[in-house]
Amino acid sequence: MKIAIEGCMHGELDNVYKTIQYHERIHNTKIDLLLCCGDFQAVRNERDMDSLNVPRKYREMKSFWKYYSGQEIAPIPTIFIGGNHEASNYLWELYYGGWAAPNIYFLGFAGVVKFGNLRIGGLSGIYNWRHYQLGHFERPPYDEQTIRSVYHVRDYDVHKLMQIEEPLDIFLSHDWPCGITDYGDSEALIRYKPYFAQEIQKRTLGSEPAARLLEKLKPRYWFSAHLHCKFAAAVRHGEDGPVTKFLALDKCLPGKRFLQIIEIESEPGPFEVQYDEEWLAITRKFNPVFPLTKRPGNFGATDLDIQECREWVRNKLQERGFKPFEFAMAVPSYNPSEHIPNSVPEIPRNPQTLSLLELLGLPYLLDKSSVTREITSTPASPSPTGFSSFDNEEIPIDDDDIDEGEEIAEATAEDATEDEP
Known about the structure:
This protein is 25% helix and 14% strand.
């Protein structure tokens, strides 16, 4: 199986697909799958743009809307995770994963699927210690704080991924696992990105939760992006243990190293996205303790047995098949000749998410208020009445408000990419 790996997409679907098709022509080959490591920017219309955390001068519709509307069809199956520049309202609709557009599949905030006989897992977002232990309290429309915190990785999603026991072939994360630079040419990396040196020395470059997942899951391949450079490493797990081949790639721009083609052993096709039984069983087990406020998840509060969840999922998938539910438009697509009024949007219930939860026998929770847990058609402005002191705690804005083009004397790796398009 030939797989194309893309670093940060930043909405440049047209350019990435054209690059892959050019490679196919000159090498007389066929790429079977595209994997994107975040900053995909699945912006469907003008309202989605309000949930995209980039400086206003960089806000562009880009090309995803054409694939969402059906005007264009992705020429190869595409699987992506979220990063820190996303239409977060749309990804929240597909929290459990699903088709963001025909032939373009979002893995969810955390997820595992099969493609052919390969198991592909992923974790969306970037790590920030301030918000890691909190629940998913953010709801659209986001304010200047929640538009930044919504894409920060949460312990709940990492905990679910840590339950995986069956082997993974590929894992995707947006930021790098902390410590990965020990296993590659860090000197060359520092020459290219000098301001990484201090973070590498302090062991703060990258994501600690991703490092724990790397140690636990030991996938054959791990792909990342975020830091806008190419970096390769090989991690051997124990003296005679398996090896994980790590690769990070740049963003899609001329002259950047944003795309890599690999060939991986696989059984013959058909090559198509399918649900993963073990992952859906984990989802069913832990959904009852899905944390929807700032309070962390209480993992011990679920008494569902994982084997019973596995049997439930197996029976359901045998009844309907393993293919994900079909793509469905939940909101209108961008139309260059029309303008959508700037009004407070409702939070749509994505038909794919509804169907998946019905399959798993689970309630729909994504439009519940982060405070009262009551269903809301539009989020209300926060009021201190009835809040606990913890629920009403103000989340600080990160100290990383650096725009592209500013002179940066000293910066951290996250500073250099947090606001950069």
